[in-house]
Amino acid sequence: MSSDLKSVLGAKVRAAREGASLSQEQLAERINRTPETVSNIERGKNMPAIETLQALCSTLGLRLSELFADEDLGRNADRVAREHSLIQTLRTLSESDLEVAEKTIHALANRTQR
Hints:
- InterPro entries: Cro/C1-type_HTH, Lambda_DNA-bd_dom_sf, TransReg_Diox_bact_type.
- By secondary structure, this protein is mostly helical.
- It has helices at about 5-20, 25-30, 35-40, 50-60, 65, 75-90, 95-110.
- α1 (about 5-20) packs parallel to α6 (about 75-90) and α2 crosses α3 (about 35-40).
């Protein structure tokens, strides 16, 4: 198993956990695993079993497909985590706030492309 895949998956799990304001211990308890297991997943040391992946997705409000997005492979795991954290936050916004966020992000993107 590619260490890149494990690192990106771990970064996404960490971002989702932090976005949910959960400690590793709290997440471990909710998915019936040890805090060490959660830590190893987040650090890209271990690839979790499918049952653990399902529990993580259910608990953190993720889709399994998000964890394995091909476009994230080969990219910096910290950047992937930040982007994923933003996506999780965007999902919590009202329609009007989402529109404001969209305009702000587009303005920032256009500013940096100049």
